[in-house]
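Aim 2, interim progress. The first record below pairs a target sequence with its structure tokens.
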Amino acid sequence: MDVLLTDDERAVQQAAAEFLATEATPVLVRQAERAPDRMSHELWAKVAELGWLGISLPEQYGGQNLPLSYLGLVFEELGRRTAPVPMLGTMVVAQILARHGSPAQLALLEQVIKGDLILTYAVQEPDTRWSLDAVELAGRMDGEHLVLSGQKAFVDNIHTAGKCLVVFRMSDGSGLGLALIEPTLPGIDATDLITTAADAEAMLRFTDVRVPAADRVGTPGQARAIALEMMDLAAAFTTAMMVGAAGEATHRAVEYAKQRNAFGQPIGSFQAIQHMAADMTIGVDGAQLLVREAISRMGLGLPARVEVAQAKAFANEKCLMAVRMSQQIHGGIGFIAEFDQQLWYRRVAAWSLRCGTTPEHRALVAESLLDRQGPVRLGYDQSLQDDAMRAARVRS
């Protein structure tokens, strides 16, 4: 991957940065935190008008069909301004529908791109694990309907979403499934959660919820692969937002260190502060490189599970370290609710626990390294490695 942005990528990122710096102000963010649905509908409409919702979606539905890397850059800027819009769930599910949806589901992309349809996904359950092995929401077929019973946790923007992509497990032992459901179906009960980020998350309880069989996404044999793809997209885009938010927190802390005086000189002149600023910058830049590589590989259709895990595990630690140090540099004022600095800290702290914790992603990386025989190269298809090893044995 070329780590340098192209002129077009740089132009998109700059345009997003300038727009959000004006529109997604801390004042707007605070207003959204107090709103019942925890979002800014006005900002969402402007985002749709700018075409961001279709930036990496097919042209036949009104999108621009740009590489996924462009969308990753937009997520960085959304995180930099902690923009209160339901972009994550909408874009993750839209990408899955664009790749695996039925004709009827693909038609929904036109509404998504116009900003008329908000989407979300439901993977985790009350035990909080970011793993398909933890899925217990039960599904069974009853004629032309799928019946769902169980719980889902940490579902974003369920009250404003028109559709939710749900991962479930068939009771007959046939494996996992996915269905694009309406959150208002009878039998679905949502309980709002109080989050560190002060955003919209909920627990869902499904009691014999009847879903038309036509609303399933992909075939039963494809369900696990599609669900993993959705999880990787969610983790990568969340990491991109963490990078943006931690980068902004770092910038604000460094500027403050240049201006705040102690003992007759700026606190940035003290070695302890200098080393903190250096560690923050190194951590954020490293996370940025890792997540950009992961998103680039996904956009090219290359294996990227390990790259996503590397990026999220690294960002969980380094971006959280950066926002914590930014609080320390600001001193006591950084922890005051009326002071803006805590806006970035709270979001990175929350995002570091979503879409997989550090131990969960480390385990995935470790598995790729240690749980298979023979040499393993990160991000490469294991079957290709096995073929190469067999060929080498034949030659010998």
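The second target in this work package is listed in the same format:
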Amino acid sequence: MHSHLLLLVVFSALTSLVFAVLQRDTPREQGRLWLLLFAGFLGAALVLGWVMYPFPGGPA
């Protein structure tokens, strides 16, 4: 895979799924928590990526 965004989405989805299953008992609660965690992971990553965009990266 060459797309960092695709890897971010896959990682966020799977991590959120594991956390939701471990933290909540009913499927409805698990689904709601999964959605909140998934949106939080994606939102935080995209905002941090946008904030860090102007800074140079890589070796000097």
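The CA atoms of residues 10 and 35 lie 14 Å apart. This observation will shape the mutagenesis plan for the next reporting period.
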